[in-house]
Design brief:
The complex is a heterodimer of chains A (about 250) and B (about 425).
Chain A lengths: L1 H23 L3 E20 L4 E19 L2 E14 L3 E3 L6 E3 L4 E17 L2 E22 L4 E21 L6 E21 L2 E11 L3 E11 L3 E8 L3 E10 L2
Chain B lengths: L9 H6 L4 H7 L14 E10 L9 H8 L4 E7 L4 E6 L5 H9 L4 E8 L25 E3 L4 E2 L8 H4 L10 E6 L17 E2 L13 H10 L16 E6 L9 H13 L4 E4 L8 H12 L3 E5 L18 E7 L17 E4 L3 E5 L10 E5 L2 H18 L5 H10 L23 H5 L2 E3 L1
Parallel strand pairs in B: 7-9, 7-10, 8-9, 10-11, 11-12, 12-13
Antiparallel strand pairs in B: 1-3, 1-4, 2-3, 5-6, 14-15
The chains are: A mainly beta (about 250), B alpha/beta (about 425).
Amino acid sequence: MKKFLLFLLLASSLAVSFLSAQEEKRASRITFTPSLTLSYNLIDCTLGEDKVENRLVFQYGTLGLDVELLDFLTLGVKAGYNLSHFHDPVDLAELPLTLRLDQSKFQGLVFGLLIKSEPLSFRNFAVKINAEGLYVMENSKQWPVELPLVSGTASVKNRFWLLTLDLVLEFQGFSNPAIFVGPRLNLLRGKISGSEAIESLTGEQSLKVAQANLLGPVAGITYELGDNWELTLKASYLSRLAATLEILYFF
Amino acid sequence: MKSKIILLVMAALALGAGPAAVEVGFYHSGNPCRSALPADHVNGQLIIKSAGITASPAGNYTGILAAHASEIRDIHFDSRSGYTILQAQEGVDLEVLRRQLLKEKWVTDVSYNYFATMSEQIPSDYLFDYQYALKNTGQVIVPSTGYSGTSGADIKASEGWDWTVGSETQTIAVVDTGVAITHEDLIDKVVDGYNFVADSTDVQDDEGHGTIVASIAAAETNNGVGLAGTCWKAKIMPVKVLDNEGLGTYLAIGAGIKYAVDNDARVITLGFTGTKDSFILRDACQYAFENNCLVVAPSGNDGDAAVSYPAAYDEYCLAVGASDAKDQRASWSNYGPQLDVVAPGVWVYGAAYDPDTPTDLRSYVQVNGTSFAVPYVSGAIALLLSLKPDLTALQVMDLVKFTADDVNQATNPGPDVYMGYGRINLKRLLGPFILN
């Protein structure tokens, strides 16, 4: 049922976008818009084959550049820095000596691609589709392992990607701001890899990270600050508790 | 070769009676069963956090008392904790009251007064309080002499059991004098074995040593009976290779070890020592090691600077010496470069079986010897393999050594010939290493 709903959401988004492009045949022009994004996310997820429940705390800041190719289609890239950790302890229990990540914070680069589309608008309403893919580069961290008479090292790598697809209805009846609401599809996939080397004792283990729930609502406001600045604040909950602030500058 | 066992029936010496005297002495002395808590919080009690209240009574309470007079039995400020304690009347819905309190201006937060429990597993076996090897609180260990140990000088079993109490999929082979398979603390634990002395399937103990070893490793635990085993759930495979005088041939022992390996035991407890090197023992230990079965063997009880065989086969065996209730090496525990670790082997409890009184299946004894230190290590390995069945014998050996406590570091820091890597530590062996 869940997969069907996801498929329906995705298919309808694409269909609406395609049909709209075909019918309206708007004139094309290219504009560039730099952006700054700050985001804080709490993502319920499961770890490993046993699907142990946990919560990924993921925050990032990126600088981006949006390229408006057509009136209804914008492509963007973004890059920045992220901090992440798991709320509950994560045990790598298949290693000879079990390692426990206890809210250990990882940090590193994050890259993203996004597609924004406004395939439909009528009166004061607009249908908007925002798709974003974020890839968190492999964040690696190393610790000394000090046992009473021997010592060694442990290292853990954490990497994941996050897909977000928002299908929102925006109300533009107020001159400023515009408000929007709609469903959000979240998809988190990742991997935690740990290894240890304590004299002759060595081992490696990986844990898959997957989002526990995929669908949830998103809502927000877009506020125009003068002729050049636009600020978007959006929040989602249920499957991903998130707050995101985007600031765009229009030339 | 006579089996080198120092087996002292403490109660028999003290009271002039048989092992049953131990039962009489301890049956009624403090069952450590913990009664279940009634709920997860103190009944009817709410704890109120507030910014401005530093004493009782306070005017702030007037409003809440007026509004909820019929629901509140008592409310006062607790200067020790810095919080206000509210005791509700019987039958009051605490959650409703808690929410109402949260609306009060002077209230910052309201919590139930939750219970916390010790983060360790305490079994209900009535002799557990005397098993200092598993949990040493400095308790009296030998009542007749008042001998007591040092708090904390134990293998951290109760903390290790937080991670696992074992699995029935693990089998500890007790290669010894057999096992009293109908003893009250072993009756449900024994699987099929073999008697290489009589070449039969009758593995009944006819000396007593194997029964003690088996119970230390994996007695039925948390059943309110007798003592606690190191690994609660593991099964015991009796492999009888020693006769009723504790004597066995290398040929029988070698065959017994191979039998245990071929019948899926992952850990073998040996309860004997030999003074001579022979390929018969070496080959058997090598066979076990190469098939991911770890042989755990005693260092010997002569106090000599020479680890006995087969413990001296450093590559294939985990050699275990004996420590006491103060984390000191037992003076009679053999030592040498092959010694890997130590475990308690002085005045430790085991299930007793006397072939002269075969119907007495409820006795327990206190004993001394490195072969009684060995089953603590074997039980620890069975616990480890319950958590991590894919570990190799070499990894198990390394883990047991690396996680041990260097209890003689003041006099001999680092791995040394007297206590090897130190006294085993189940908390560190089974629990996680924290990466912050």
